[in-house]
Design goal:
Layout: E1 3-6, E2 11-14, E3 16-19, E4 25-26, E5 29-33, H1 35-47, E6 52-54, H2 59-62, H3 64-72, E7 81-87, H4 95-108, E8 116-122, H5 127-143, E9 150-154, H6 158-167, E10 172-176, H7 181-184, H8 187-196, E11 201-204, H9 220-229, H10 235-244, E12 249-254, H11 259-270, H12 277-291, H13 313-326, H14 329-336, H15 353-357, H16 364-376
Parallel strand pairs: 3-6, 3-12, 6-7, 7-8, 8-9, 9-10, 10-11, 11-12
Antiparallel strand pairs: 1-2, 4-5
């Protein structure tokens, strides 16, 4: 397994990291992790040399950390790096509120410390909670040795990340980075700001929520371009190689959902080859084709899932994106109507809560209305 030694982190991290956010589930319920399958996947990755595992208080209906504890605790604690996060959207009333969350995380993960710990999901609206609550708490835990390295995950404008790294001392940062968002979502600028500050980068969403790895979601022209260049390489491998080719990237997280995802990713990183100039040009052409497809930039992260009106936002948007790729209205309509009516787009009240929670900044109510109008046309 390719490893990238990072002196500032004092860690020898596998270039492929395992994100415990998109584990296989049962009965379509994200809180019901398919333990036998998921454990098999983690064991396979660990034995192949993957040593960075990323979870959070929020993932899988608060069950991801439990899974991490059950699965990883059988291995020597110093043989892997464990990362978790403090939610920045919580309304803290006292330090005790954070202590309760943090203590529960340690207990669920069956550990006495976190190697990496992040302020989760910083953006323009969450700077106050970082300043007043979370940063000081994380620094205190680091002084106590319960957190080894502090960082943050970011979903906002580059000007805001510049402010965050200027005003606070960090060990690392996590950003969304993939070849589509490199230009249109300012991932390039985010990466440059962090690199200039000599802050190692952890990459999330390298395949844009699976969009850049799923041949059914990608435009046929995109798949053809990549297959012509390398018939043996999967679309996911191209996306992962793009992120991992950047020298300041410490690890690239992959939210693997099936054993075949693990095998494909291990194939990419066991003998890792950075993209050459010709391949980078191909990836830029691929990104241009993708951007012209009109796809909604939803990554199915499910941060918006607690919709007050009950709309299953990720499911609706993913279905609609499939229509954009395949251009078959009748199939979309038939599939959409199999959804429970209480989860359909017409229930949207335009309250805007989902927009505030969306890491991609998508105007979700606009697209839900577009779905309703499209089906009525």
């Amino acid at each position: 397994m390719e490893k990238r030694k990072n002196a500032s982190l004092d860690a020898d991290i596998s270039l492929l990291g395992f994100g415990l956010m998109r584990l296989p589930i049962l009965d379509g319920d994200t809180s019901k992790i398919d333990y036998p399958k998921a454990q098999l996947m983690v064991d396979r990755a660990y034995k192949a040399g993957v040593n960075y595992f990323d979870t959070s208080y929020f993932y899988h209906g608060h069950k991801s950390e439990v899974f991490a504890g059950e699965t990883l605790s059988k291995y020597p604690r110093d043989s892997y790096y464990l990362a978790s996060k403090m939610p920045t959207w919580e309304k803290f009333q006292s330090q005790d509120d954070m202590e309760k969350i943090f203590d529960s995380q340690l207990e669920k993960c069956k550990t006495s410390y976190f190697d990496f710990y992040l302020a989760h999901g910083l953006n323009e609206e969450r700077l106050e909670v970082l300043r007043d609550w979370i940063y000081g708490f994380m620094c205190k835990k680091k002084e106590q040795g319960i957190i080894r390295r502090i960082g943050f995950s970011f979903h906002g404008h580059p000007d805001i990340i510049h402010e965050i790294v200027k005003n606070y001392k960090w060990d690392f940062a996590m950003i969304q980075l993939n070849y589509v968002d490199w230009e249109i979502a300012d991932a390039k600028r985010l990466y440059q700001i962090l690199t200039e500050r000599q802050l190692p980068v952890i990459v999330m969403e390298p395949t844009k929520g699976g969009t850049l790895s799923d041949t059914e979601k990608l435009n046929e022209k995109v798949v053809d371009q990549l297959k012509k260049a390398d018939p043996d390489a999967s679309p996911a491998s191209w996306a992962l190689r793009f992120a991992a080719s950047l020298p300041n990237v410490a690890t690239v997280l992959s939210g693997m959902t099936a054993p075949e995802h693990v095998e494909d990713n291990l194939k990419t990183f066991e003998n890792f080859k950075p993209l050459n100039d010709e391949e980078l040009k191909l990836i830029e052409k691929t990104a241009q084709v993708y951007r012209s497809s009109g796809l909604i930039p939803c990554t199915d992260c499910r941060y918006c899932i607690d919709c007050p009106a009950g709309v299953n936002i990720p499911k609706v948007l993913v279905m609609y994106n499939h229509h954009h790729v395949n251009k078959i209205k009748i199939n979309f309509g038939n599939q959409y109507r199999t959804m429970n009516r209480s989860e359909q787009a017409h229930n949207c009240t335009n309250c805007g809560q989902c927009v505030k929670l969306c890491p991609q900044g998508i105007d979700i109510p606009k697209y839900l209305k577009e779905v309703v109008d499209f089906l009525a046309s």
